[in-house]
Predict the structure.
Amino acid sequence: MRFSKTFIKTLRNAPKDETAKNGILLTRAGYIYKELAGIYDYLPLGLRVIENIKSIIRDELGKIGCEEVSLSLLQNPELWEKTGRWDDKEVDIWFKTKLSAGGELGLAPTHEEPITSLLKSYVKSYKDLPLYVYQIQNKFRNELRAKSGILRGREFLMKDLYSFTATEEELNDFYSKVEIAYKNIFDRLGIGSDTFEAFASGGIFSKYSHEFQTVTEVGEDTVWFNKDNSLAFNDEVFNDEVLSEFNCKKEDFTAKKACEVGNIFKLKFKYSEPLDLKFMNQENQNQTVYMGCYGIGVSRLMGVIVEKFADEKGLIWPENVAPFKYHLVAIGENGEKEAEKIYEKNENLFFYDDRKSVRFGEKMSDAELMGIPYVVLVSDRLLAEGKIEITKRETNEKTLLTTDEFIAKL
Amino acid sequence: MRFSKTFIKTLRNAPKDETAKNGILLTRAGYIYKELAGIYDYLPLGLRVIENIKSIIRDELGKIGCEEVSLSLLQNPELWEKTGRWDDKEVDIWFKTKLSAGGELGLAPTHEEPITSLLKSYVKSYKDLPLYVYQIQNKFRNELRAKSGILRGREFLMKDLYSFTATEEELNDFYSKVEIAYKNIFDRLGIGSDTFEAFASGGIFSKYSHEFQTVTEVGEDTVWFNKDNSLAFNDEVFNDEVLSEFNCKKEDFTAKKACEVGNIFKLKFKYSEPLDLKFMNQENQNQTVYMGCYGIGVSRLMGVIVEKFADEKGLIWPENVAPFKYHLVAIGENGEKEAEKIYEKNENLFFYDDRKSVRFGEKMSDAELMGIPYVVLVSDRLLAEGKIEITKRETNEKTLLTTDEFIAKL
């Protein structure tokens, strides 16, 4: 992508009401645009980051046999009335709207009800199970306050996966597989070493659920960790009763701020029972389907990655999520010619700052703000010595290579 | 994809209130699921069709220098008040909702206002222009009636492209480029020979806009064509005044039913003026940006393709949009073994009916209903003669090949 052709620019200032680091930096670097508090647009580079996150998730879920769908955003109240979740007293973050033909609709805050109801058309017998169905879709939550940038949106992107099994054993097996898939996802996103699985409360049917919590100063959650981080509890279940179950004592734990990037939940019959999702078992008896649900906050992850890695100069993207691998900066006449040659080798790898009449200093500080992993400087001065300079954004480590050496590495 | 592993099944019946052919067949074949009138879910095969359509659009728009974004669905009334389009008397298909923090929000029926406003942060000088920005995003329209399947949704997927230029000449140039890109898109989607560019009314600033109309019995529009289809007018502008401009007479035209799959519109200052999108020209004067907008109905296209090609047995997908190229049917013990071998060669090409205990007749009628371009039958009977049978779904033309011959063609 050529800087001279894209509409985005780096901006000196983020909107005045933007107080979160992720919101400020992503806006200034041209990745997102704020429509209203908690409501953002994704600009070309931001969309590429989101797509990279989605690809990694799709890849890992594909490996454990999940299939992708896309469910509607507009919601039929009938389904949600059956589970008691249409009532604003039960779920207080609904956006509701009126259908001109009569009646109300909701904007999906999550999708358990429609996916459960949909499967009634397809699940008849034990032979139809197990099933693992997910989507990467927008969600809407009518938050009273939204001031954490893309960490907590009124409109945001989520991956929601649902499992449907005939037995509790199969539910447990798949739950374990998702735990591994999630670890792989967070590893590939570059936040694996700071992301921990914490016990959380389980609701009606299960004692515990699990949250995947990334330790970060801006996290809204408090998570309690033991010494080697091998055991973690969210605040809600951090009490003597729970701890005694694990043979632990409160004093062995310390609190850290963390941001929930995923959660997994054994729903069992919570939705399949009120929505009547049943199957015929091997003994020809009707049985209720066991369900699990498994979420990942896709747009939130983008924000968490910013919060974890950014420094005082700007964004720093892990290579797997970066919009491009290289930020190619051309300076001077020969620099431009050489940079064109490099860019043409593989346009998909480069964000190419081919802007004329923008000074060296501005190009380099833009590159630092935008956070692409490697800055490739191709300048008259360096070329006079036969070299180009590659700077790793994260460490500021510099390498001098000939163009041919660099191209050979692509 | 293995039939035995996906949750979808072919269904005997579509919902009772589904009357459109596209809605009935897509539901019966397991591509979509109806939540409410005009509100559909996309199931694994349906999502693949949608993704194929999106890829073709992205590819053609990339060639003419467009860049992709994703704008929020929730809309800030302020922007729409500036253009007069917040008022339900002006735009009568709004879904509106209340923000719990106070105030109203809308669900985007289109995105001219936010994209124009967004660009105010990025367009300052003539050097920043021209710009071509698009997204493929959901739209919401609060239709009083919705009974055409996915041809007219209350929630639907659209590609909306906006051009921003300094001069009218550049607007006209880009408009012509989009006309060519659209022709390429409709050609690649398999509906090129039935899709025509028709004159339509132009609004305040332009005499005419253009609609891309696919001739089909179920079309809601009436389009008037001359003898060789080289000239077409939509009903709205088919009058003596317009015709005299083109030196034509009404009697030389015949009416056909058609479905609008795209439209292009020279907006000029319609939105940039009220939203104050200006740039500094070469003479250091403030000037209003020329805009154009260019839509394609993505989910509607899927419906139009169904309506155009389906026959009494079911769907027929053109190869470029089909979820898979081959529908692989295994019959008998040796058939299964041989089919596995073929499937493993390239899983991405095959929808593989590996279901046990489903009879030959049912497998073949499911294949016909699902409409994948080639049915590859691998049965004990045929293998005894050393052959497998490839049937072209559209023509029912059959070819016998050895497995090796077929694999060599993949």
